[in-house]
Amino acid sequence: MTDTPAEARVQQPLPWHADAWQQLHLRRQRLPHALLMTGYAGIGKQQFAQALAASLLCEQVQTNGHACGHCTACNWLAQGTHPDFRRIGLAVEAAEEGEANKRSGQWISIGQIRDLAEFVQLSSHRQGLRVVLLEAADRLNSYAANALLKTLEEPPERVMFLLVSDQLHRVLPTIRSRCQQVLLPMPEAQQARQWLQTQGQVPDALLDLAGGMPLLAQRYQQEGWSGEWQQVVEWLSRPKQEPVSLVAGWSKLPLPALHDWISKWLHDLLQVTSAGMPRYYPARQEALQTLAARADRQALLACLNTVQQAKPLLTHPLNAKLVMEQWLFAYRGLWQKRAAG
User: Fold this and answer.
1) b/e per residue, 175-205, with b = 16+ CB within 10 A?
2) In whole numbers, what is the pLDDT of the chain averaged over residues?
3) Where is each DNA polymerase III delta subunit C-terminal domain found (predicted)?
């Protein structure tokens, strides 16, 4: 007697992507060799691509196009052992092929793409498709992008490439031209809140901070910096405390988190100075309006530029404490100058 495979946990597309899913499902037999999923960060593009990969590999696909979750292929995929599936994620980039500029951060390297080139030339183990999921198409280094382009220009038979990108403009134009783009929408505010309620308690303020992107709000909650976030916002609302003593208490706060919070605050402050509505801090509208009445728009833009110029340092700052202090002094200086004037 043969045991029935246990049901595997397979990804499903999120509710606000149902229409996009249905459109692809109706064209299942006529899909191109490469799809490029695009849209805002934090809306579920990775989950959509993973669900599509599972569906393409599933041996008993449901009528709605979802993977069954109990066939051999689904179980292999859930265990990370499916021989016809490759996931390409981010890796720390090193200088390659004589590249002199060692950029900090995470990238998809040429080594990963070379390994992929060998995989796509193999025969399928299950007589079906081989599927490649490339998680960050906008994070290919130059050598990796050119190597991938060669594969996309002459795609092997029965290989499906699923690319995902938060920043479409950073994807090599020739790669974009070899893919069919799938623009995935963000959810309506109420839909996002309803979904987050099913995932656990996530405050509305975090969904606002995430710009309405529910998976980003969920990540904020999981990172556990809500206490520090509240302190930062309180200080931005009333920047009286001296920055050096303030930063001393944030020794464990990741620099990218502070950069995100301050950048979004400055964005909202600029919006309010132009009679707009705050996007990320709507609950702080009164404080933003009070500050906007005293603000010099050009000085605000210069402050935002100071913060944004430090973006390349976020993943490998020489001194995170000094960078934080620079941002806070620049911001505090806005109001001291106005008071002195």
Assistant:
1) bbebbeebebebbeeeebbebbeeeeebeeb
2) 88
3) 233-330
